[in-house]
Amino acid sequence: MTERYFVETPIAGDCALLVGPEAHHLTHVMRAGPGAEVVLFDGSGAEFPARVERIGRAEVELAVLSREPVDRELPLELTVGVALPKGDRQRWLVEKATELGVTRLVPLLTAQSVARPEQKPLARLRRTVIEASKQCGRNRLMEIAQPRDWSDFVTDSVEAPHRLLAHPCSDAQDTLSLIGCHAHACVGMTRLFRRFRSCPHKRGHGTQLAVGPEGGFTDDEVSQAIDAGWQVIDLGPRTLRVETAAILLAGMVVRQVV
Ligand code: SAH
Q1: Helix and strand element counts for the chain (H, E)
Q2: CB distance 187 to ligand 1 below 6 Å
Q3: CA quadruple 200, 210, 249, 234: dihedral sign
Q4: 195: Cβ contacts below 8 Å, ≥ 6 apart
Q5: pLDDT tens for residues 101-123?
Q6: How far, in Å, from the CA of 239 to the mean position of ligand 1?
C-alpha cells in the first residue's frame, strides 16, 4: 500500500500541506523527497493520491492529483463505551478498536472506574487513532467522545437496535436475581448473535456496547442498564481485561456484519 498521511485541514483544492508529526514522518522517517507519490486522507471518507512538491523546515507541500471516495467503514454505526484501562493498555484498545472499524469510543465514568480521563491523554489517543487509520486504510477517524457518566450513557441510545453490556454471567445470574430482574436479561453469545443476524442493519442504526472497569460494574449499574433496555452478555468463564473484553465484543459484532 502506498504510504498514507493524514492532513488536519479538509483538502479542498489541488494542493495540501503536511505539518507536525506527519511532515516529520514523511521527511525524516520515510526520507521521501520531491516527486514522491503518496496518499493523503483528511477524515472525510475519501483518499487523495498526491505528489510531494516541496519540503520545508517544518512542513511539506504536495500537489493533490485526484479525490477518490474509498469507503472502508462498517455498514453500521458501532459505539463502544468503556471504562478505560491505564497507559499502554488504553493505547492498545484504541488502536485495535480503530482497526476493527468502531465508529465512536466513549470513555465511561462508572462507580469503580480507576481514572477520570483528562483532556491531554485523550488528545494523545486521537493521535493513536490517526496512526492506526494510516496503517489500516480507514478514511474516517474513530471518534473519541467526551467522557460520559454511566447513567447518561445507558439512557442516551434508546433507539439503537442492539445495546449489549458485557458482564460475567455466573455473577450476573446472582446480580440479576438480587436486583429482581429475570435471568433471561443475560444471554449467551450464540443466541444473541443469531438474533443479531436476523435483524437487518442500516447505516445510522447504531449498535452500542459497554464494558466495565477492572473492578466491574456494580449491581446498581447493571440494573440501570437493564431497566433502560440493555442486554447483558457473558463472554465466557474467564475474567477478561477491560481491553480484551471490549475488542472481543466489538470483533463479534463486526464479524456479524462484514
Ligand atoms: N471482577 C470484575 C471483572 C471486571 S473485568 C467483575 O466480576 O465484574 C472488566 C470488564 O470486562 C467487566 O466489567 C466486563 O464488562 C468485561 N468482562 C470481563 N470478563 C468478562 C466475561 N467473562 N464476561 C462478560 N464480561 C466480561
Answers
A1: 8, 14
A2: no
A3: negative
A4: none
A5: 999 999 999 999 876 777 788 88
A6: 6
> Within this chain, do residues 111 and 232 fall inside the same structural domain, yes or no?
yes
CA distance 39 to 22: 12
CB 90 within 8 A of CB 84: yes
Distances (CA, A) of 42 to 28, 108, 138, 224: 21, 28, 10, 39
DSSP state of 184: G
Cβ of residue 235 lying under 6 Å from some atom of ligand 1: yes
Predicted confidence (pLDDT) per residue in 54-66, tens digit: 999 999 999 999 9
CATH number of the domain encompassing residue 57: 2.40.240.20
Same-domain pairing of 48 and 88: no
Tell whether ligand 1 has an atom less than 6 A from the beta carbon of residue 115: no
Question: Range of 146's domain?
Answer: 77-257
| For ligand 1, mutation pick of 235, 243, 249 (most atoms within 8 Å of CB) | 235
Handedness of CA 40, 45, 46, 47 (dihedral sign): positive
CA atoms within 13 A on the CB side of 33: 0
